[in-house]
Amino acid sequence: MYDLHCHILPGIDDGPADWSGSLAIARALVAEGVTCVAATPHGPGSSQSRIYLPSRLRDLVVQLREYLQRAKLGLQVVLGTEMVVASDLTERLRQGDLLGYGTSRAVLLETPAHIVIEHLQRSIFDLQLAGHRVILAHPERTRVFQDNPNLLIPLIERGVVVQITAASLVGWHGQRLQDITTQMVYHNLAQIIASDAHAPTGARAPAMREAFQVATQLVGEHRARRMVEELPHLLLSDAQIPLAEPYFIQPQKQRWWRRR
């Protein structure tokens, strides 16, 4: 499995404080079946960011790979950033002051708990206009999408890839988030699952294996595997991604999570 959203680098945000914590997360990821992880520290402008310097991040990834090799952990690492919505993202990416995923054109855009939808749409449009492929991080935790998940449909139709958090899907963040995330998966309003792990245990630990199992129950193994293997691989490769048509969520009396 691929995990395209993880706070595994030490001492730079609200992830692990040291290399011991980073390696503990790495072991937890491997135990979950993850073979490739994207280190996505919080970017400039985030209240969780302590240090954001591309050269420092690259050094940390090199060190992490060395630690993983010595520990004989078969985990590949790609560097990225969880970017805060801002008006200058494209310019900072162009100048190299902000990092997308590895050498690809894919970028991870954070959706904070409270945001004006028009501001988010403008940031997405600017990034796409500059040739970037936008991955939208954990919209199930954003108020505007909690109130109306169907607002994701026009974004997906424009090529935005929606990433939900594994822990939300399995219920670690409460019943409400689980219900919303389940609807997103069932109605093709989410394309990939990632851990957003900050720790090896607890509510912010990886939950990728269990999330894959839940997704399999909802939409079948083929589609669930696309969410954790095929589509993440294509994103990192800048390959064409066929996105399934999203379905409008309508209130209904029957159990909407019954598999199609």
UniProtKB/TrEMBL annotation:
Keywords: Hydrolase, Protein phosphatase
First-level EC class: hydrolase
E.C. number: 3.1.3.48
Pfam families for the chain: CpsB_CapC (PF19567)
GO molecular function: manganese ion binding; protein tyrosine phosphatase activity
Swiss-Prot/TrEMBL catalytic activity: O-phospho-L-tyrosyl-[protein] + H2O = L-tyrosyl-[protein] + phosphate
InterPro entries xrefs: Caps_polysacc_synth_CpsB/CapC, Pol/histidinol_Pase-like
Highest taxon above the source species: Bacteria
PANTHER family, per the entry: TYROSINE-PROTEIN PHOSPHATASE YWQE (PTHR39181:SF1)
Family indicated by similarity: Belongs to the metallo-dependent hydrolases superfamily. CpsB/CapC family.
Name of the featured protein: protein-tyrosine-phosphatase
Lineage: Bacteria, Bacillati, Chloroflexota, Chloroflexia, Herpetosiphonales
